[in-house]
């Protein structure tokens, strides 16, 4: 848990994920689970995970990193949104319920924000979750303060992704969360350095993720996969985004080229890219320390800083020379921006 006193914060990162409160928000497209951590009077940070993941398996590494937890929990109340049926202990979604589209999932986020009476929010998404949050930002620009995207998607599936999705769909339909399906997902998430091979054991984070995948309901994962597989190309709408965007991608990610494509289509005045070496798609789990310095500079643009006892630079394998020059420019990253009110005054 976190204790705040003036400009300082004391964090017990081992209990961060034990103190959150779950809310089940009923929307027009079904119920969605939201785990809330922190002081609700603080600005809101909304997260959305990738396929078959939730906050435990997608963001735990980042929030268990003490400096990152200090930066984020000192400045934000965190709202972890799970894709329908992906929350801990979720039952199988009724087979008669229509499969939501990517647009439906983006609209659900709006209903979640309205439920908590939130105004403009900071968003953090990973892969499919990054796509949903980007789509949300395009549809409801006034509700998004900024985007932190990890290995984001923006185009319709490539032939390679379509084929992989087809294989996973068949595995889910006929065999459930079987071993081969988990291998497909782990390839999607992690680099070969941590997945291991015949001579090298897979890392602890991969083993932990494998165990968490056992808890997913295959029918629920299939529904989210179908929504993402049918996603439209949103490239043309990226230029309309005026919120600042920070993109992370591992150089071993299957979506590396797509992240570069997305960066090239965004307004360069508002976008910065960080490529993380020897890392897969899920930078939040595989190399969370690589996110610290870029996030700190990014959030400085909103008048948000780390608490006093973390004044030293974060421990990060990412040297300043590895960061895109525009990220290190205070003017480019918006240091002149004023903090934006994030809570609406109207009652629910």
In short:
The chain has 348 residues and is an alpha/beta fold.
Describe the structure.
The chain is an alpha/beta fold. The protein has 13 helices and ten strands. The chain has an eight-stranded mixed β-sheet with strand order 3-4-6-5-7-8-9-10, with helices on both faces. Strands 1-2 form a two-stranded antiparallel sheet. Helix 4 packs across helix 5 and helix 6 packs antiparallel against helix 7. The longest helix has 17 residues. It is globular, with a radius of gyration of 19 Å. The relative contact order is 0.15. The N terminus is likely disordered. InterPro entries: AB_hydrolase_fold (IPR029058), NDRG (IPR004142). Belongs to the NDRG family. It comes from Penstemon davidsonii.
SSE class: alpha/beta
Morphology: globular
Mean pLDDT: 86
What share of the residues does DSSP label as strand, in percent? Answer: 15-25%
Q: Rounded to an integer, what's the Rg over CA atoms? A: 19 Å
Strand order of the largest sheet: 3-4-6-5-7-8-9-10
Number of helices: 13
Could you give the distance between the termini? 28 Å
User: Main β-sheet: number of strands, strand sense, barrel status?
Assistant: 8 strands, mixed
Count of DSSP strands? 10
Unreliable segments of 5+ consecutive residues: 1-17, 310-343
Helix proportion: 25-40%
What order do the SSEs take from the amino end to the carboxyl end, as H and E?
Answer: EEEEEHHHEHEHEHHHHHEHEHH
Keywords: Membrane, Transmembrane, Transmembrane helix
Protein name: Pollen-specific protein SF21
Organism: Penstemon davidsonii
InterPro entries: AB_hydrolase_fold, NDRG
